[in-house]
Amino acid sequence: MAVHVTWTTFSVLADSHRPPPPHPALDPDAPPALCSQTDPEVFFPEKGASIRPAVAACFACELRTACYEWSLAVTDLDGVWGGSTPRQRIQERARRATRGNDTAAEVAA
Ligand code: SF4
What is the tally of structural domains in the chain? Predict the structure, then answer.
């Protein structure tokens, strides 16, 4: 059976083997991540529990936009990152794939 490898297939394979980028909080010049000063359980709520405390912390965090972009670049990420849930990140990736050229500023607004 022949396997047809298209450029798209190759790109997807290449992406899946690319290591995830470092979280922006690891930059020595970055402001502190508020999640490092908050109960980590808040960012990984049990099913049915509120995500509001995590989202509130994220929206007060100076790293939110960079963290949100990072979370979009890392697939299969659990929990709240940059104020977003896994489902929201899936939706945003799909939206960007469809629309193409959106910037972080447009998303953060
Ligand atoms: S935006 Fe949220 S998850 Fe990201 S570093 Fe800040 S508090 Fe942590």
Answer: 1
